[in-house]
Amino acid sequence: MTAGRNLDTDRFFAHYATMQRIRAFERAAIRAAREGLATGAIHASIGQEAVAAGVCGNLVRSDLLLSNHRGHGHTLAKGADAGAMMRELFGREGGVCGGKGGSMHIADFGVGMLGANGVVGANILIAAGAAHGVHMRRSRSADDRVVVCIFGDGAVNRGPFLEGLNWAAVYRLPVLFVCEDNGFAATTRTEALTAGPGPKARAESLGLVAAEVDGNDIVAVDALARDFIAAARAGEPRFIHAKTWRLEGHTAADKGAYREAAEVEARWADDPVARCEALLEQAGVESRRLAGARDAAVREMEAVFDEARAADWPAVERAFEDVLDTTAARNAAD
Amino acid sequence: MTAGRNLDTDRFFAHYATMQRIRAFERAAIRAAREGLATGAIHASIGQEAVAAGVCGNLVRSDLLLSNHRGHGHTLAKGADAGAMMRELFGREGGVCGGKGGSMHIADFGVGMLGANGVVGANILIAAGAAHGVHMRRSRSADDRVVVCIFGDGAVNRGPFLEGLNWAAVYRLPVLFVCEDNGFAATTRTEALTAGPGPKARAESLGLVAAEVDGNDIVAVDALARDFIAAARAGEPRFIHAKTWRLEGHTAADKGAYREAAEVEARWADDPVARCEALLEQAGVESRRLAGARDAAVREMEAVFDEARAADWPAVERAFEDVLDTTAARNAAD
Amino acid sequence: MPELTYAEAARIAIAEEMRRDPDVWALGEDLGRGGVFGQYAGLAEEFGPERICDTPISEASIMGASVGAAMVGTRPIVEMRFSDFALCAVDELVNQAAKARYMFGGQARVPMVIREPIGIWRSSAAQHSQSLEAWYTHIPGLVVVAPATPADNKGLLKSAIRCDDPVVYMEHKNLWGLAGEVPEGDERTIPLGAARVERAGTDVTVVSWSRMVQTCARAAATLEEEGISPEVIDLRTLWPWDRERVMESVARTGRLLVVHEAVAVGGFGAEVAATVAEELGAPVRRLGAPRIPIAYAPPLEDQARVTDEMIAAAVREMA
Amino acid sequence: MPELTYAEAARIAIAEEMRRDPDVWALGEDLGRGGVFGQYAGLAEEFGPERICDTPISEASIMGASVGAAMVGTRPIVEMRFSDFALCAVDELVNQAAKARYMFGGQARVPMVIREPIGIWRSSAAQHSQSLEAWYTHIPGLVVVAPATPADNKGLLKSAIRCDDPVVYMEHKNLWGLAGEVPEGDERTIPLGAARVERAGTDVTVVSWSRMVQTCARAAATLEEEGISPEVIDLRTLWPWDRERVMESVARTGRLLVVHEAVAVGGFGAEVAATVAEELGAPVRRLGAPRIPIAYAPPLEDQARVTDEMIAAAVREMA
Ligand SMILES: Cc1ncc(C[n+]2csc(CCOP(=O)(O)OP(=O)(O)O)c2C)c(N)n1
Ligand SMILES: Cc1ncc(C[n+]2csc(CCOP(=O)(O)OP(=O)(O)O)c2C)c(N)n1
Ligand SMILES: [Mg+2]
Ligand SMILES: [Mg+2]
After folding, report:
1. Under an 8 A CB cutoff, do C293 and D103 touch?
2. Within 13 Å of residue C84, how many CA atoms lie on the same side as its CB?
């Protein structure tokens, strides 16, 4: 990690605060799942926070983001309201999707977050298309939005990886693809089922400039993302392979019996949040300020947890809304 | 082209004869389409015969082959009966698929030809699976069959390309993939819509050893196919990118208005059949023998054309057979 | 009113909508050359390659990218060439396009028209002949349209393009060349969800759509000479379907025959027949293809067809 | 007879068939760890990683490779995890597996079982809750099975594995833990296409399948106390469905209610209802989900459920 005195401490303090907020949100979400309050499956991103913070921290509000089933961190980092997100996980009124989506479909179009996705790899094509739409509108207005798409290492074995990356390169679309490689696809180590030299080579073979990065190194992720987002914004699609590790189970219910405790413990030594904290300390940021950010994050997420628990259920009529304009009346009749 | 006196003339005379038979079959098929006798679409492979002959000439009868919509040449080269094939194109009794498939679904399981396919790229996954099946049975018996899958340059932009090649590499399956690049996907030049360095790089990024070859050079195709088939047979999947050119329209109905006459004419100078003929002449094979092979091919295909025209239509009850065993009776009732 | 073919009517509908709204565009394979059936002829010349966009053979991407492009406010017309190839893009259509608005609690809108030509087209065989309209009627979030005439193909396509929800728009491959009068004018849209009476009658209600409407009309002409008067209703939109119009007719005639080219088992005819049986208790009957793939050889292929004789016979039995 | 869960019964069926026939194997994501619902627990230990094959996340490949593997004589059991993900592999199932035998004039056989768990499973939302069995009944070349009990899940799965045609085998995610008596023995298969009478009765015929059979049984118990006697038929196999058994019952009771969890519009209930209306002219009625995607929040999700109260109310109205 390239640290030292000349670190832009403001910038990385902001990333640090984001990472702590994600960590605290995920802890609260896991607790909610275990207590039966988050009624659906929860895929937490503990250990992967530097990817969310480093990538999304380089976007502006109008930029667009597509995520996968493990999308809380990305969504928070893009600026969504934690309270509305937590209410969504609880399936309550005021949830960011009105309780219709839940964790796997978390989205906040108001901050350019166009949705998590329950289908592995599906977001790649939607992202390519969002970038295509932005590209088309550029000829008419000064639209310089960039689209970022984050997916897992499991997604590189699905057809959309090839089709979406080829598409972005053919039409020179403003999109950055980020493969957030946490080592696993559910209970399976992805490596054994992914042939060839890896995601970077695959992306290059499809015409994209691509790079690998230590996904737990916030400085490296930030620098690469900044460069690649600038290029993508200019119509040169880019690809990042960020190597990180999933410190918790696949879902809140998964105890991760398929990996040794020793391995998990060793990986905790590489915790990106702790690494960022050490870096900032080294750069002269007071421990008190760092602890303050952490505590604020924990308090914030405890508060949103309590708020969510207290929130009402959505009115049942909502179940019949947002289906089709043309048939509102008819649908109700069925 | 690596020619000369020390050419194995028997081997290449056989390839030459195959190529002439394909050429003559395709001419007859086009005529049949234009006369309304071949009732469905005909995708001829004129100009691409060296790929079929050079690849399939290295297979034995029990080896397996999957092809695409442009599959007459591959099927003939694998050893199918031209008469049964032509009757299939005419939709007649005695067609190799009983008239149910037609040109796009030509197949002869008796010679290991497991089918052309009407869906671009679909054969890639079926081939990977056939190889998987062979691989599974190897542990129980001495099954050393290899599977060959031939598809077009258009197919490299579909998801199954990634999924099928990764699959073959992960499980180390006995399969050779051949991208028969004729420059076009229907009326579109494929190059403009295929990003990156090309099919070979894509295959390599998926863990396959891959090579490019002049697909109109029968000697080069033959040599590469021989090597790669041996490797594939041993469980090392391989990939060939064979560059050729489609000398006729996409279908028999396509006049090819999207390309200049001059370009087509220039490409005829690279006609693989003529090149093979020249090579054999140079190697000392008598012109008379070469002309004899050509004439025999033309006569054979005229005969099968006439036979097909004279053949009966299939009995209409056949339409209700080969659907499901469990419901033969019920289906008839619907 | 000018005479146009079904293909020309669609082309004009697209041109008019593209002139009206700069966010409308079309994408698919070989569109720049006018499309496989000429249904995009001349459009690339007028609108350029960005708005009449040639794509790689990547159906999943064509569909999936359109979902994203629609979410950011453009209005893609997705060309699938044959409805059979759309089976390479079902996740993108059913799990993404159809559900995005709902899953995200109304935040997303996905205005896209998915053109999926259906139907038997001489010797195209099992992978190029399917009519799977019933599938999409079963999927919440999708509108389903299947026009039978040139005029409808103009007016309904325009409405589909203006619709803010995804519309599966199924033209019939055997109708491209059918000529008919087509009203001129930018605002001549036809509302989604409204049936059309092809031929008024009193004895049996015959409900159909797409190419079978022409077949039903021929059968009706024969029957009328025999003194039987069928009312032929062209549903035009399968979801939402014009239940009121059908119920009103069956209430008058007392009997229903539904005719479609798709496989009878699990076809949309079952929905119409079941609904009528539930609501009116009237005698119902369906005609559709047997549950067999479509064969190549003409005499075998013909076994999958519903003919005007079959329709006439069914009506005679019911009347 | 031992008590087993629905998941255990399936696991034993597979183990027995794999012991009997070395060509049977299973493939899918995370199978080596026993499958997401434990329905493959212990099998990798007994049969090894080649026959209980962990795959990449490549649904199209899992399905497409199985077509090829079946063509060369093996008998793959294809695990799709959730039926929703099978939408990533529809070309492979519908254009390839279902049609290969026919297109190639009988040269190909494609013996594969496609396990596609269906149904609402608390807060799984729109992309993990669908029941699309109706789709596959509409596709020539496919057998469609949807078992409701542990015993059936053993006997039908064994028959599906022995079937020489592709079988779409749809287990219900909410039934995995259901316990019940399951006959022992290798040859205790249950024939495809035969319905089962869950509860005999005289007043109304209630046809259902999958999880809704349990719901119908509960409703029937309530109704019986009120003096109404419904006959509940579990179809078990949707294609071919046991038309004779249903007709015989409706001929006795004089009325039909079809109940399924899938969306009512275009559901397989329409096929059953339309067939009964056509053949017997008896009053018919369907109960299924409204045409809305499945929501996440429990009270919204519940709007998509058919309950025993709804069933009881419908039967009361009809009886
Ligand atoms: C198409 C598809 N197949 C299978 C699944 C089931 N599934 C959910 S998450 C997951 C693992 C995904 O791995 P990866 O893409 O690496 O993301 P991660 O969970 O590691 O963040 C699987 C297989 C799915 N959601 N979609
Ligand atoms: C999935 C799919 N999309 C589109 C088509 C229509 N189509 C038939 S052939 C063809 C071009 C294929 O190009 P290529 O793979 O290069 O094969 P070639 O025709 O050149 O031999 C297309 C687009 C199809 N058959 N399948
Ligand atoms: Mg992962
Ligand atoms: Mg080509």
Report:
1. yes
2. 26
